[in-house]
Design goal:
This protein has 216 residues and is of the alpha+beta class. The chain is globular, with a radius of gyration of 19 Å. The protein is built from 9 helices and 7 strands. Helix 1 crosses helix 2, helix 5 packs across helix 8 and helix 8 packs antiparallel against helix 9. The chain has 3 domains: 45 residues; 47 residues, no CATH class; 105 residues, no CATH class.
């Protein structure tokens, strides 16, 4: 089915100008009908890059803004742009895809394999701040996976103590934080949303949409 530029923009959570830019560079295929462009709706599902990724500094400012903060650490013009992105996110029909596109630089992600018997102790370890699938607010918490944030200086010790391995089926998702980055416990809800979005699955996307209503 073909849709208009306006409908595509609403689906992707971006401006109509951004859709036209992507048509111009060939990222989206479209054809003219009179003076207007129309696009095949099916290709939008394959479009996983909805905007330029933010730097780590800007990503954390955006998460702070979503959580009700002022977006510290960025300039006034950057804050204005982030407020516009916040409005785009809250009105988007696909917020998980936007978060996944905008925030990949917020932390280094590592995936490890651990013995199932060690997961409860790992989940309770004070050096890990639970997030994503392991945060109870997601409604998806599973005993078979541990996901959370770890400060870089603690990572090697955790790998050694729990015999985490890069081989095997990953069941531990670690978001590695810089030494100067501190997070609260529990994490701000927008951080959990960003982590859920990264899993790129229908259950996680539904959880993002549900939890995003608490921010609006």
């Amino acid at each position: 089915m073909e849709i208009s530029v306006g409908e595509a923009a609403a689906r992707l959570g971006v401006s109509e100008r951004r859709v036209r830019e992507r048509i111009a560079v060939g990222d989206l295929r479209a054809r003219r009908v009179g003076r207007a462009w129309v696009l095949e709706e099916a290709q939008l599902a394959r479009s996983d890059r909805l905007g330029r990724p933010m730097s780590r500094r800007v990503a954390w400012a955006f998460l702070d803004l979503l959580a009700g903060g002022s977006g510290d650490g960025v300039t006034q013009p950057e804050q204005s742009r982030l407020r516009r992105k916040r409005e785009l996110l809250l009105s988007s029909s696909n917020p998980a895809a936007l978060l996944r596109s905008w925030l990949p630089s917020r932390a280094l992600v590592q995936r490890w394999s651990a013995a199932a018997a060690d997961l409860p102790a790992l989940r309770d370890d004070e050096r890990i701040v639970l997030s994503g699938l392991s945060d109870v607010r997601s409604g998806l918490a599973a005993a078979s996976v541990v996901e959370g944030y770890v400060v870089a200086r603690d990572l090697d010790d955790l790998v050694e103590e729990y015999l985490l391995s890069a081989r095997g089926e990953p069941n531990v998702v670690v978001h590695v934080l810089d030494e100067d980055r501190a997070v609260s416990r529990p994490l701000p809800l927008p951080v959990v949303l960003a982590d859920l979005a990264d899993h790129d699955g229908p259950r996680e996307a539904a959880a993002v949409e549900r939890l995003l209503r608490h921010l609006s």
